[in-house]
Write a structure and sequence with these properties.
With 216 residues, the chain is mainly alpha-helical. Helix content is 80%, strand content 0%. It contains nine helices and no strands. It is globular, with a radius of gyration of 20 Å. The N and C termini lie far apart (77 Å).
């Protein structure tokens, strides 16, 4: 009886290790594919795979984070407000699935704000009042949850710049947030989680060059 119990436990541990290995293999293939995709077909294929990973691994939020990011990318590939909104709505649904698994997470809150920020840009004149508050609120919460999250500061900077451009104003606040993000990217340590978000350093550098170093 004891030997049988030990055998069952060993088999269970082996199956769990295999499952974890399959998760890492699948994520290791499809997350880079999502970032590298240059066509809507390739991007949708990666998103579909990430969705399947999320459905199979019900305690992991990371697949849904990258599904949301993928749909944000997808929205940029289309011109009409209807198409953009369709993919942004799908991005938000993915964020919500991630939050059900991992509530009050700085990275998920930041990408929630990102979705709302892009929603605003689809029609700033009519959406400004609603989506500006939603985006700023999420970025502020993301920073409160983790003041050292460089992506939250980067996105805050982009939001501040866009608001200044639309409402009229300087770029001091935006550049302050972007420079803060750059400092934090320099200090960001490699996470124990290989699928923790790590994007944004190059975009921050480019934003600083374009928005904060003009004429220098």
């Amino acid at each position: 009886m004891k030997k049988n119990l030990i055998l069952i436990l060993c088999m269970l541990c082996t199956s769990l290790t295999f499952a974890n290995g399959q998760f890492e293999k699948a994520m290791g293939k499809n997350v880079p594919a999502m970032f590298a995709a240059e066509t809507s077909e390739d991007l949708q294929a990666a998103i579909n795979n990430l969705n399947r990973i999320g459905e199979a691994e019900k305690n992991r939020w990371e697949p849904y984070y990258y599904v949301a990011f993928g749909y944000l990318k997808m929205s940029e590939m289309y011109q009409t407000a209807e198409d953009k909104d369709k993919y942004l709505d799908l991005a938000m649904k993915a964020v919500e699935k991630g939050e059900e698994i991992n509530p009050n997470d700085s990275e998920l809150e930041a990408i929630r704000g990102y979705v709302n920020m892009i929603k605003l840009t689809v029609d700033p004149a009519t959406r400004g009042m609603t989506y500006s508050g939603l985006a700023f609120g999420s970025f502020q919460k993301a920073i409160a949850l983790n003041p050292n999250n460089p992506r939250a500061h980067f996105l805050m900077g982009r939001m501040q710049y866009g608001t200044a451009q639309f409402m009229g104003g300087g770029t001091d606040d935006a550049c302050s947030s972007l420079f803060k993000a750059m400092v934090l990217f320099g200090k960001e340590e490699k996470s124990d989680n290989p699928f923790a978000p790590s994007w944004g350093k190059g975009s921050t550098e480019q934003s600083i060059k374009e928005l904060c170093e003009k004429g220098n």
